[in-house]
Amino acid sequence: MLERVFETKGVEIDWRAPDDLAFLGERQDLQEIFGNLIENAAKWCRRRVRISAGPSTPGQMIAVVEDDGPGLPADQRDTALKRGTRMDEDTPGTGLGLSIVDELTRAYGGRVTLADSDMGGLKVVLELPAAEG
Q1: What is the Cα–Cα distance from 16 to 52, expressed in whole angstroms?
Q2: What pTM did the predictor assign?
Q3: CA 110, CA 42: separation in Å to the nearest integer?
Q4: 114 near 122, Cβ under 8 Å?
Q5: What is the structure's pLDDT at 4?
Q6: Are 65 and 73 in contact (CB under 8 A)?
Q7: Dist CA 45 CA 18 (whole Å)
């Protein structure tokens, strides 16, 4: 769906995850988490968004959403996770997306980490509970 929303921008979204990977939580919460992350990545990317997910340790999964956009300076990353914080007042948005991702992830005992992507933009790493196969 997001590829259609950003069609005029020509965004390519590459998604890779094993078919048997399952989040141990509510489906709508996972949709909210990834919806916010992918929308942000597509909004800020130049052309490419990459999403990957897989098991990390027993009962845990790791998911990574990254883009080839301008990224986010390290000294602004903690602030970006706070509710209502807009990092760019000239770009449409509410400043709620990353804080929602952080709150939902923490509610499941997980963790969000923001870093530099090897694609040039922002890399968001999620650690979440996974259902056992």
Answers
A1: 5
A2: 0.86
A3: 24
A4: yes
A5: 65
A6: no
A7: 25
